[in-house]
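Handout, section 4.2: multi-component inputs.
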Amino acid sequence: RLAKESPRKIPIPPGHTAQSLEVALRDLAEILGQQWVKFNDVPLIDGDYHAVPLSHDSYHILDPDDLVPSAVCWPADTEDVVKTVKWANKWKVPIWPISVGRNLGYGGSAPRVRGSLVLDLGRRMDRILSVDTENAVCLIEPGVQYVTLYEHLQEIGVGNDLWVDVPDLPGGSVMGNALERGVGYTPYGDHWAHHIGLEVVTPTGEVIRTGMGSMEGSECWQLFPYGYGPHQDGIFSQSNYGIVTKMGMELLPNPGGVRVFMAAFPRREDLYQAIEIIRPLMIKKIIGNVPMFRLGLQDASLYKTRDDFELDERGIVKPDSLKKVIEELKTGEWVFYAVVYGPDEITQAKYEYVKKQLGQINGTKFYQREDVPPEHYLHNYAHYTTGIPTWRELDRMKWVPNASHMFFAPVSANSGQDAERQSNMCKKRMEEYGFNCLDTFFIGTRAMHHVISFMYNRKDAEERTRALACIRALIDDCAKLGIGEYRTHLALQDQVAKTYNWNDGAIMKFNEKIKDALDPNGILQPGRSGIWPKEYRGKGFEL
Ligand code: ADP
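Output:
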């Protein structure tokens, strides 16, 4: 199909004309097979979680036509990825790999540079290459989703013994989420920390394996992460230095029992003391998973829409109205979901200990599964923490019409002071812009991901613009206090990268040196994480 005959003109990447791009794409179609390369000339239909489009970011925060590829291709294996990378170097077309392409709230399947070619790895490279049941590890390709890995373990009869750490929604790629350093709910909730060994195609088309995989004949690729000499894995996470085609992942052995509980706190000010109490419980591993400390309003958004509340003139939920809903749902101003693992004798003792500690906060109420009705989120939480996929988080998508998510996700120390400071600051700023601040703290051993959910109506251009302006203001507010984000939407990656500015931005200078050395033609994901190849720097590509 010729671009000029298309219903929608395909975007052209920098340095190309419609004609030169078409010649290049026809060449790629010769290499990969005609059916595996498709022009992005389709209407931009947002779809939904189960039908995420490859044409654009379905939760667009900019104009839907801003971050769009010129075409999509579907490599079958590592060799096809190498051929595509070599093609990109020959024709100087920017390319953008995705594993599944959901990446909701962070840019979806969209590339950063308009007119890039998207490599949808997941469609044909979706094999679970091995499961080592004795050592509890597997080797996977990009298209393996949490739900498919879970089902595979059930099918081969080890699902009860080996668990997958599932994140909020299980349709994402296990590899994509680990590369983005996403989090889940079990002791293996830090996904990147539990990957083990990579196969990577470099931006000039070489194939490398990291760790023990770099040795011919080694059987420890998925057992020992480091190998010999420098450890390269880190440079392939949140970067534009390589396309990962295989990844080892650790599976969580069933710990032999589980006790899931929720604690509800009656006052907003309880945040401070609660986090101070939780801090030693985390660092001493008394609580062994990645527990969650969530604002009552965020919890309520699973059951209610914004219009179920009384709102002020800015659209902010009135405190009295929230109180009523909290009573109705039997939650709190803040709710803490956690789990202790092990045989009954152990979990009973640990639970009693945790209860005693948190019980020091006046009015705290504790709930276990038997205390709550069947529709209560605690039952879903029990699934997350035992590696069972659930789609419950989709319920939140009814909060406003055409609801889209965007996340503001700063890192906080596990300290009452930091948590309170960040939460209050974000609430104030978001309310000023007319957004309810919906906080969740995912608590790690020493630090928390403070994930704030922006829910906006993507069909309302004014609301989108306001959401973007608000999140930009938040990034600046936080940077002034030395608070940085762990991950951000495509449209904000330049701004966030600039906040990591110690020693005159030494880290970005280092990142750019690596980029120039590995990717001399600047073809791989220009702009990802704010890292631009030399041809693009200072030419107005930054947002
Ligand atoms: P999800 O798991 O949510 O579907 P994606 O597959 O969209 O996530 O991946 C998220 C982002 O991670 C992509 O936009 C891309 O920048 C990067 N990414 C995903 N898979 C790979 C890969 N195999 N190699 C390199 N980068 C990748």
